[in-house]
Structures are given as structure tokens and as C-alpha cells.
Amino acid sequence: METCKGNTTIGVFIDGGYYAKVNEALMEKAGVKINLTRLFDFICSRVAMLSGSKHQDTLITECHYFRGRYRAADAAELNLLYEERAFEDSLIENDVVFHYKHLRKFVMGGETDIMEKGIDVWFALEAYELSMIRKFDYVVLVTGDADHEMLARKLNAVKIKTVLLTWNLGSHSSTSRLLHDEAWHHIELKNECKKDVTLMSRICDKV
Fold it and tell me: Which one, of 131, 202, 144, lies nearest residue 172 by Cα?
């Protein structure tokens, strides 16, 4: 992804936990999953419309994906290694930089549970720092998490237009009202699909 003078530049930051929940809901409800290449094309077309730019002059110049993930032995035990590697292939093919931290195990009430630790903070720090360095015209946040409210506020404070991209398919992928209120613009794909019945088939693949 390269930057050229005269282009409208976009930085995309994906909350991997949120993205996974959306995909799980899509597979359960409609038997489809998001195609990253076509999602990125949709993002460019929508930002072009918002900015008054031409689609061909609107570029995602950088994209970052953040997720907690199992250690290799745990992933193998859960038969997740192939699935994880296949998804990483799609990230690589779309020039997405991925950032992982190991999931942590903790015991509560005699039961072992798994949690992500520090991913949201890392997401916010990287998004803010890279936005200041790269001087994106627009930053697209793929998340619905209230923890990113202050990130959106800070980006708006330095005059970087923040676009929130969500897909509310249930309680696990709902969007925080605080985050919605801080975003410069909010694209809710559930509503977009209602307005354009072909949109889901354009940005998703059947599984």
C-alpha cells in the first residue's frame, strides 16, 4: 500500500476480537464470512463518497489487525491451527500488518477461563501514533468497543476524521453508544445491507 500526492489516504485499524465475533454471527445467520479484499474496496468507495474524491484516488495506505491468540500447543489441541493460518493468509494477501499477544489463562471459581490482556491499549496507542506519523486523511476503526471512545476523541481533536465501521448482528457485536458519539462518521453495515440488498453478497463469501 503506497501513498501518492493528491490521493485521499486511509488508515484502517481492525479489532480482531470484534471482527471474529461478526464473522461468527454471519456464518451462523447467513452462511457467509467477510471477504477482506472486497470490504477494503467498500471502505475506499464510501470514504471517496464522504470526501468528494474519486474512488481510484482514495487509498488504504496502511491497515493493522490486533488480536489475542492461543499458543501453538493450545491452538493445536483445539484444532485451530489451520483456521488461524488460513486467515493470516488473507491478511498477508491484503498487506495487513497483524499484531498478536498471547491469550492468558486464569482460574476463577475453580474453572479456567481465557482472556485478552492489553490488546485494546496496544490498538489505541498504535492507531494514534501511526495516525500522527502517517497523517492519514481518514482513520477507519473496525470495532464497536467502548474502550476505543477516547481514541476516536483524540483523533478528532487533531483533525483526523474518524470513521467507525461496525456490523451489529447481536449482543456480542453491538456498538458502544459512547464510541458512536465520538466518531466523525459511523457506517453500520447491518443498516447498509437493508438499504442495498446486494451489499452482503458483494463483501462476503459463502462458506
Answer: 144
